[in-house]
Amino acid sequence: MTEITATTPAVSAENSRSRTVRQLVRYALIGGSGVVIDFVVFLLLHNLAGLDEQLANALSTTLGIANNFVLNALFTFERRDRLVVRFLRFYAVGLTGIALTNLLFLAFTDGLGIDANLVKAASLPLVLALQFVLNRKWSFA
User: Fold this and answer.
1) Domain of 109?
2) Within a domain: residue 120?
3) Does the residue 81 lie in any domain?
4) Which segments of the chain have a pLDDT < 50?
5) How far apart are CA 122 and CA 124, in angstroms?
6) pLDDT in tens, 117-141
7) Handedness of CA 33, 36, 39, 42 (dihedral sign)
């Protein structure tokens, strides 16, 4: 005999919040791997190869975005349909992170003389939060 239970709006809202929290945790963990890739590649390109911080940031962030898209599609949002469209949206959201970081470089590195490595590190949590909201609502909706 199968038991049928009614879902109340309160239970549904609680399940939705719980799912959002699980997604945020996974997104942050996966984002952590992308951050490591992004930051290490940035350091290599900027400090060792001598690339300008803007170009180094664009390249390193692109690698982090690709890593994060694959892992988020598989594990966070569990969406495997329309991958090209989703990747283009995910990359567009990633471009907002590049733009935000570049604005912070302009303000803090160029404007105030703060080390680009510190600005890059400090920008990461802000960019992660913005991108989670945008990716959840647009890229993987």
Assistant:
1) 9-139
2) yes
3) yes
4) none
5) 6
6) 999 889 988 888 888 899 889 988 8
7) negative
